Amino acid sequence: MNWSWFHKLGSPPHLYRIAGGLVPWFGWTALVLVLGGLYGGLWLAPPDYQMGDGFRIIYVHVPSAWMSMAAYAFLAVSAAIGLVWRIKLAELAARNAAPLGAVFTALTLATGSLWGKPMWGTWWEWDARMTSELVLLFLYLGYIALHDAFPERRTGARASAVLALVGVVNLPIIHYSVEWWHSLHQPATITKFGAPSIDTEMLVPLLLMATGFTAWFATALLMRLRVAVVEHERGAAWVRALGVRNG
Amino acid sequence: MAEFIAMDGYWMYVWPSFGLTLVALIWMIAAPWLRLRRLLR
């Protein structure tokens, strides 16, 4: 296999160009999947026998929750690669995944709160699922703060990578919290052993939203990487050729 | 249509959830797009 495309990613102008070429593909895929998921979830799926139409919050809450954890896993793996092999692209990917993951986490907490009020009678409960998801938000914010606290960017990348790796312990805690502790939150419906306990008409839009959110994350990350390389490479000939003024 | 908007009486929970999500998704794309456009100007 020819790996030259991979090695070229280490070169900022190539990364800028390759990411720019990928953005429309991921972007349009994300938009189509999310619009399809919204149509299926809000319109086609039948109401839940217990929650009526209130259950439709699932179509934004659950994909956000999955993404909040997937983005963290991506961040941690990228940070680890950056830490071990000193690959700049991995450091950039980790730092730029963080705000996206933080937004998905905040969204999970907000939509969960909006779902909890009518169904459980409370906006918030300090139980394991909700508390560990809140800790995830603080991990993202702490990672960003620590990363940006050093005058030298690569020192910050190394220090914050260690925090990101320690934080990985929170992921299984979030996932298994509903089994390990008593919780208001319902246990897993989709990712359990055996068939998912949800009707196909309800499940398909959920999967569309989940894949759509993943593609959305990829699009946003690629766009952020392009901004990051232009900002870091200010003054370089190829950036000046794009029309960016020095300083 | 009115029935759709009412969401079984859960409209005040369902629509803010979808609204917030929409705002967040748009921000994810718009923020880097605007930033790059400003840089390239």
Q: Report the end-to-end length of chain B measured between terminal Cα atoms.
A: 45 Å
Shape of chain A: globular
The tally of helices of chain A reads 9
Query: Radius of gyration of chain B, rounded?
Result: 16 Å
- Percent helix among the residues of chain A? over 70%
Strand content of chain B: under 5%
Describe the 3D structure.
The complex is a heterodimer of chains A (247) and B (41). Chain A has 247 residues and is mainly α. Chain A is built from nine helices and no strands. Chain A has helices at 4-8, 12-44, 58-85, 88-120, 128-147, 153-167, 170-180, 200-232, 237-242. In chain A, helix 4 packs antiparallel against helix 5 (128-147). Chain A is globular and about 60 Å long. Chain A starts with a helix and ends in a 5-residue tail after the last helix. Chain B has 41 residues and is mostly helical. Chain B is 85% helix and 0% strand. Chain B contains two helices and no strands. Chain B has helices at residues 2-6, 11-40. Chain B is rod-shaped, with a radius of gyration of 16 Å. The termini of chain B are far apart. The mean pLDDT of chain B is 95. At the A-B interface, helix 2, helix 3, helix 4 and helix 8 of A face helix 2 of B.
Task: Give a concise summary.
By secondary structure, chain A is mainly α. Chain A has helices at 4-8, 12-44, 58-85, 88-120, 128-147, 153-167, 170-180, 200-232, 237-242. Chain B has two helices and no strands.
